[in-house]
Amino acid sequence: MARWLSDDEQTTWQAFIRLRQRMDAALAAGLAQDGLSPADYEILVPLSAALGGCLRAKDLGAEICWEKSRLSKHLARMAARGLVERRPAREDARGILVELTQDGRKALEHAAPNHVDLVRRLFIDAMTPAEARALRSLADKVVDEAERGTDLSV
């Protein structure tokens, strides 16, 4: 039997949904001004942090919690724009390596300052240090529970 949300719990849940929707929309609009989508940025960031700017597609998908088909389709679009390159892995012919190109790095470096400014203005600066610690604690609990109860691997 379902354990329905109380009025207060429903209000809290709806507040989170509004926060996520408004943040997603604002971040998408900000990235669009720099010629990237949120999906592009989500892929470019871990590639830029990876050794040599390169990750196995399977590992990239697992890191950003994307299904194989979604990742493959988006990487094809990014490759067509020159942001990434895909090639077979030498040690495993079935594996695909995804590499950040110079154009991809330049696009990320161009977009990152504006993106970070927007994140700071809309999110970080709105919290006290205590609120930030509480949010991190809550996020860790929710992520742990979601990963325990759901297979988020690709």
Write a structural description:
This protein is mainly alpha-helical and 154 residues long. It has one domain: Winged helix-like DNA-binding domain superfamily/Winged helix DNA-binding domain (Arc Repressor Mutant, subunit A). It is 66% helix and 8% strand. The chain contains 6 helices and 3 strands, in the order ααβααββαα. It has a 3-stranded antiparallel beta sheet with strand order 1-3-2. It is globular. The model has no long low-confidence stretch (mean pLDDT 94).
Mean pLDDT comes to: 94
CATH class, please?
Mainly Alpha
* Structural class designation: mainly alpha
Strand content is 5-15%
The sequence of SSEs as H and E is HHEHHEEHH
Q: Describe the oligomeric state of these chains in a short phrase.
A: single chain
Q: What number of domains?
A: 1
Brief synopsis:
With 154 residues, the chain is mainly alpha-helical. The chain has helices at residues 7-33, 38-49, 57-64, 68-80, 102-122, 129-149; strands spanning 54-56, 84-88, 96-100.
Which helices and strands, and how do they pair?
Blueprint: H1 7-33, H2 38-49, E1 54-56, H3 57-64, H4 68-80, E2 84-88, E3 96-100, H5 102-122, H6 129-149
Antiparallel strand pairs: 1-3, 2-3
Q: Tags for this entry?
A:
globular; Arc Repressor Mutant, subunit A; three-stranded antiparallel β-sheet; 154 residues
